[in-house]
Amino acid sequence: MSTPENARFVRLRVDLVVEIDDEEAVTGAALQKISHDPDMPADERVHAESAVTEDTAEALAYLVDPFDLVNAVPGVELAQASWSSEQIDYDPDSPEWDLAQDDDGEREDDRDE
Question: What is the reported pTM?
Answer without folding.
Answer: 0.70
